[in-house]
């Protein structure tokens, strides 16, 4: 047992848990692989789809956030702002388009990792399915209400 790391097993477990949580061993955009430099990015925002994320280094993450900010797609720390369902869908689609452009740039770079790109595209497809389910859900409940007879007496 060393003085610098009194509990090496716990530390190794924490590092492995972080690696599993991130879902990757390196940054999606560059070759950075130091686990302490990686963080989870949510391309369309955590509130819009908390399951849609990928690992990137802090440097690339800052660049992505700046790009989103320059496109007017961030709230700049305003967490309690209200947006309509339509506005939320518009932001989602614009953020997703920006994310697709960043994936295209990765494909053009020399740091491309085909397995990471495949995983990113599958993750994007899953996010689109979840978004479609959100859009579809309110109309399904309304259609069920319409099919009920409005003057039907309840048994009770």
Taken from the alpha-carbon principal axes, the silhouette is globular
Task: Round the Cα radius of gyration to an integer and report it.
Answer: 21 Å
Structural class: mainly alpha
SSE order, one letter for each helix or strand: HEEHHH
| Total beta-strand segments | 2
Quote the distance from N terminus to C terminus: 72 Å
What spatial order of strands do you see in the largest sheet? 1-2
The number of helices is 4
Estimate percent helicity.
55-70%
Output mean pLDDT: 83
Number of domains: 1
In terms of per-residue confidence, which ranges show pLDDT below 50 for 5 or more consecutive residues? 140-156
What characterizes the major β-sheet?
A: 2 strands, antiparallel
Strand percent estimate: 5-15%
Task: Characterize this entry briefly.
This protein is mainly alpha-helical and 156 residues long.
Written account of the structure:
- The chain has 156 residues and is mainly alpha-helical.
- It has one domain.
- Helix content is 55%, strand content 5%.
- The protein has helices at residues 8-22, 58-70, 85-108, 114-147; strands at residues 38-41, 54-57.
- α3 runs antiparallel to α4.
- The termini are far apart.
- Mean pLDDT is 83; it is low at 140-156.
